[in-house]
Amino acid sequence: MPLVGIGDITRHAPAGVGAFNVILLEHAEAIVAGAEAADTPVVLQISENAVRYHGALAPIAVASLAVARAAAVPVAVHLDHATDRALVEEAVTLGLGSVMFDASALDDEANVAATADVVAWCHERGVWVEAELGEVGGKDGVHAPGARTKPHEAADYVARTGVDALAVAVGSSHAMTTKDAVLDLDLIAELHAAVPVPLVLHGSSGVPDDTLRAAVRHGMKKINIATHLNKAFTEAVRGHLDTHPSVVDSRAYVRVGRDAVAREVTHLLNVLS
Ligand code: G3H
Ligand code: ZN
């Protein structure tokens, strides 16, 4: 199955599309294994934070692309939360078919200008662009579900920037380790009616499964999940190390984490489909 563009996945998905963050090679392997078990397309995404962790984009991007090309289901590889234009250009050069350019920390006019510029550059190269309006909180680790994207501003933003998908603030917050986020489902429906491109839910780790299903029914399309997978990975590794205190070979416990992530991805893709 070839590496595909995220646009192909979102266009053909009957319901929600799972987009999961890759930090280590094992995340990419686990996400693809979980998607294969669910027989569902999936998005691997690499954030600017993950790039910072590795010190460069290329090693983790090239590894993710290789895992995607070998998958038995369609897989897209996407750059997530890039605030740096140079990183966007590097991602495209490496072969990523889509990027999120996150100018949401800027004021709205500056956000529009910077994003429109990135969109023009990417569209010349056939690359799909996601952007964000109405900052989804929690990127600094502080739970902040308060922001809301206004439908008329979202429609205006999409028209002025030409983005292919829009991340909106509807009650979720990044990096939650409990599943008790409350989403504004009426607002999701209003945004879906107002905006002609797919809507993206960030900070989905804190959203209960039933609410994820409802969010998709109300018009959310791309569902971004990172922290929940890290939690599954770390809990599994911790459990293994606790019960095998003399283990030395890192493959013995990393494999357990990888398997746990794969199981969660299968479960979540079934929730979203
Ligand atoms: O862009 C990535 C997502 O918004 C992940 O958020 O770690 O809260 O699931 P999360
Ligand atoms: Zn996010």
UniProtKB/TrEMBL annotation:
Active-site residues, as the UniProt record annotates them: 80 (proton donor)
One Pfam family named in its UniProt record: F_bP_aldolase
Source species taxonomy: Bacteria, Bacillati, Actinomycetota, Actinomycetes, Streptosporangiales
Record's keyword annotation contains Metal-binding: yes
Keywords in alphabetical order: Metal-binding, Zinc
A single MF term (Gene Ontology): aldehyde-lyase activity
Cofactor binding notes: Binds 2 Zn(2+) ions per subunit. One is catalytic and the other provides a structural contribution.
One GO process term, biological-process aspect: carbohydrate metabolic process
Cofactor: Zn(2+)
Residues holding Zn(2+) 2: 102, 132
Binding site residues for Zn(2+) 1: 81, 174, 202
Gene3D superfamilies xref list: Aldolase class I
Record protein name field: Fructose-bisphosphate aldolase
